[in-house]
From TrEMBL:
This is Gfo/Idh/MocA family oxidoreductase. Residues 48-163 form the Gfo/Idh/MocA-like oxidoreductase N-terminal domain. Gene3D superfamilies: Dihydrodipicolinate Reductase, domain 2 (3.30.360.10), NAD(P)-binding Rossmann-like Domain (3.40.50.720). Signal peptide: none annotated. It comes from Amycolatopsis acidicola. GO terms for molecular function: nucleotide binding.
């Protein structure tokens, strides 16, 4: 993944800040697929026509990224709530429409920012219309749905990417590079901690949150999925987990867990632990750490939540360095809007990679199949918590009954 190259493409576009009016030369350009001209960029590149479905919390990061990318036009934004779609589209200089109508607007790519249980229907609809699709995490709330989404896109020849923007942190990239070049060696020991604050109002603000049927899970599914993704990206394929979870703080408002602990065994023989909670006040951010066969250790810390993670441990012989994420003291917990806003640059990096992958007809950094790996781990974690036993991590499309 050439993050430096993606950053250069973003800078070349002269991107505005989120909320500013779009570039005046974004109107009426030709599609990258058809080559039929409105206008094209000065280097002759055809324009990718983009849309966003779902105008909720994180959608602004997608809309601003498409609007600000060179050779990309944000055409339309859709939501089941017409008023919300209208306000959102006006903010980002696009047309407002409905999810049923957006695929009639000649889109090349679409971001799916709808609630978890609706991902399958929207992604498969995009595939049926030949539109390349970038889906917010988690890809789905069960592996059967994920398998159908992947199959639909592959059958239609459509690119499917899934948002895991924390892979684009420079700290994440450096750890991955240290694994690949042998500095750490094969990872054998890992840890992910997700120690966050949420008010109960976070769960009650949207009817779909906090239930098994519509949210698919709690802190593991919605927050820790990012860190589980990083953990498996570093450690390799997971084969078995053992998990316990409960709801310490929000149990009166939710069915799902707000706190969980787990162990994970990997195909390589490596082991890892996971601790996750939204019951802390104040939150203590997130960490992912790995130790390789060389004995060297590298870890990153995200504090406060939503900030760019930094390497807090680099225990490589001759290169030792540590930096406490709490060096400036504890910070107040940020609102969800501020958390999402601070992650926008890394959404932009992944969206830039996705549009480049579409243009270059290659796989994006995080494919649907890659994203299904963290969902498979989550599926096994919930099954283990229900059974009280270790559970095997299932293959794509294989269901485990909770």
């Amino acid at each position: 993944m050439d993050v430096r190259g993606v950053r250069c493409r973003l800078r070349a576009g002269g991107a505005d800040r989120a909320g500013d009016v779009p570039h005046p030369d974004r109107a009426a350009r030709r599609s990258w697929r058809t080559g039929h001209c409105g206008h094209c960029h000065r280097d002759g590149a055809a324009v990718i026509r983009a849309g966003v479905i779902g105008c909720g919390n994180v959608a602004g990061n997608h809309a601003s990224a498409y609007r600000d990318l060179p050779d990309t036009e944000l055409v339309a934004c859709a939501d089941v709530d017409p008023a919300r779609a209208g306000e959102f589209a006006a903010r980002y200089g696009a047309a407002a429409t409905s999810p049923a109508e957006i695929f009639g607007l000649g889109l090349d790519v679409v971001s799916v920012c709808t609630p978890h249980p609706t991902h399958e229907a929207v992604v498969t609809e995009a595939a049926a219309h030949g539109v390349q699709v970038l889906c917010e995490k988690p890809i789905a709330i069960d592996l059967g749905a994920a398998a159908r989404m992947i199959e639909a896109c592959e059958r239609a020849g459509v690119t499917l990417g899934v948002l895991f923007q924390r892979r684009f942190w420079p700290a994440s990239q450096r750890i991955r590079a240290a694994i690949d070049d042998g500095t750490l060696g094969e990872p054998v020991l890992g840890h992910a901690s997700v120690l966050l604050h949420r008010e109960t109002s976070y769960y009650t603000a949207d009817a779909w949150r906090g239930t098994w049927k519509t949210d698919g899970g709690g802190v593991l599914m919605t927050q820790a999925v990012h860190n589980i993704d990083l953990l498996q990206w570093f450690m390799g394929d997971a084969v078995e987990v053992h998990c316990s979870h409960t709801a310490f703080k929000h149990g009166d408002a939710i069915e799902v867990e707000d706190t969980a602990v787990a162990t994970v065994r990997f195909a390589s023989g490596g082991l890892a632990t996971i601790a996750a909670s939204t019951a802390l006040t104040p939150g203590l951010g997130t960490r992912v750490q790995v130790t390789g066969r060389t004995g060297a250790t590298a870890g990153l810390a995200e504090y406060p939540e939503g900030s760019e993670a930094r390497l807090d441990v680099w225990a490589v012989p001759g290169q030792e360095a540590v930096a406490s994420p709490f060096g400036a003291g504890l910070a107040e917990d940020l609102t969800l809007a501020r958390i999402n806003g601070s992650l926008a640059p890394f959404h932009a990096l992944q969206i830039a990679d996705f549009t480049a992958a579409v243009r270059e007809r290659r796989e994006p950094a995080v494919t649907g199949r890659e994203a299904a790996k963290s969902l498979a781990i989550l599926t096994a974690l919930y099954a283990s918590a229900a059974s009280g036993r270790p559970e095997a991590v299932p293959a794509l499309g294989k269901e485990i009954t909770r």
